[in-house]
Amino acid sequence: MLITGSNLKDADLTGANLSEADLSDCVLDGALLFGANLAEANLEGARLIGADLRGANLRGAVLRNANLQKADFRDGSITTRGKGGNLTSLTMKLGATTIENADLSGADLKGADLTSAVATHTDFTDADLQGAILVHANLRGATLAGAMLDGAKLDHADLSGANLTDAVFGSASTENTSFDGCDLSSVLTDQSRGRSFRELDPPVEQAITGHMQWVASDGAIGTPLVLDGVDMRGGPSFRDAALPALSAEGAILMGLDFTRATLVGARLKGADLRNCCFKGADLRGSNLEGAKLNGADLRDAKLGRLKSGDKSYPTNLRSALLRRSDLRGADMRGAALNAADLTDAMLFKTRLDDCDLTDAKIANSKG
Question: Is-above-0.85 flag for pTM?
Answer without folding.
Answer: yes
